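Contributing new records

If you add data, match the layout below exactly. Sequence lines come first and carry their own label; structure lines follow with theirs. Keep one chain per record. Anything else will be rejected by the validation script.
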Amino acid sequence: MHGTTIDPTAPPSDTDAPYDVVLIGYGPVGQTLAALLGQAGHRVAVLERWPRLYGSLDRVFLAGNARALYDSAASPDKRWAEWPDGDHCLYNHSHEKHVLVADWFADRLRDSLAREGGR
């Protein structure tokens, strides 16, 4: 992947290339989406406020903010996991998180099969 730095305050010129998609933010999701869209043949522009990657934590990844989102989620079937180091996002403890997700799914599957008579 390659990119060009542009001056967002500069007026457009006749040589500016049009883009199919403009993404705001080049965090983990922005990077993934930009790559997938680019691979699919789309011309992608990404706007990022930080001069280097991960100049600041995404607000969702701050435990207090994520907890507020979790608490306001309507689903009665949700789980919160936070490790002693305060991590709750996808960067650390990936093995434990995969196990939690697998356990959650297995519980739902077992309950569903029991309701259907073990089919």
